[in-house]
Amino acid sequence: MNRILVIGAKGMLGRDLIPELQSSFHETELLAWDIEEIDIRKEQETVARIEGARPSIVINLAAYTDVDGCESNEQEALAVNADGMRHIALGVRRCGAKAIYLSTDYVFDGKKGMPYFEDDPPNPLSVYGRSKWKGEQSILELTGDGLIIRTQWLYGKYGRNFVTAILRQAKEKKVLSIVNDQIGSPTYTVDLSKAISQLIRKKTSGIFHAVNRGVCSWYDFGRTILKLSGMEQVNVVPISSKELDRKAVRPLYSVLSTQKLKQESGIELRSWSEAVKEFLSLQPDIGKST
Ligand SMILES: NC(=O)c1ccc[n+]([C@@H]2O[C@H](COP(=O)([O-])OP(=O)(O)OC[C@H]3O[C@@H](n4cnc5c(N)ncnc54)[C@H](OP(=O)(O)O)[C@@H]3O)[C@@H](O)[C@H]2O)c1
Asked: How far, in Å, CA of 21 to CA of 10, rounded?
């Protein structure tokens, strides 16, 4: 393994994954690209840039991640999330590399009532979910040993996320309304980065779910963030997804089973509550400037 190319390297996950890969793969050259270096919407440019770089692994983190924005801009969502992955897969095939794609619980409809396994049939409810599922299909159809890692509810030091949003709102509003009927696993980008690194080391391929252990609602997550930040006194009101009325429909119970990750690769991420506790202890100023 002599060269790893990360596309979407300046995003929230990318900025934690790059140092993780640097420390885990000393012997490997790392290329960290974002839209300035490659626009994955453009087929010829993408294929040529990847072929020219001759990587052995390409990790695609680049995405149009504004889930509500995707509803009003379906063409752009498909161009980045679906076609973008197809263009990367074509480039990867040309140089015999391995492709890794980050996907989402939003490929599921959340109606199963039990944790989703990797081979459960997707049925996305939103444009974002559909576009990511199409991306998954490209990597499976066009590359031999591709790896798809589905995750959810990411937060980290870099980029806008639920943790920073709650802390900011707690300073601005008297009452916070948070949905309590969507259930999932908040996942720390640092923990996910370590899991990605381990999956690379083990030369894993196929579909894997990777999230922090344990489940909660956004409401529970919000209350935990406030408690750990010494803001328990903030008034939080549970509301339903219907009341919040976002553009994109989200799955209600999109818990991802990590049984396969544990059994086949021996990887288990720590509990979401431990992870968020550490995250907040390392970022005492978070929310103050966002
Ligand atoms: N965030 C979550 O909760 C979550 C949950 C499940 C799965 N995922 C998946 O995990 C991956 C990483 O997520 P993230 O939250 O780190 O995303 P992010 O912060 O939005 O980062 C995505 C990066 O891709 C870049 N990008 C956008 N369009 C591009 C294009 N046409 N060509 C090249 N680069 C482009 C973005 O640049 P700009 O900022 O300039 O647009 C950004 O730097 C994504 O594939 C996402 O679908 C995320």
From this structure: 14
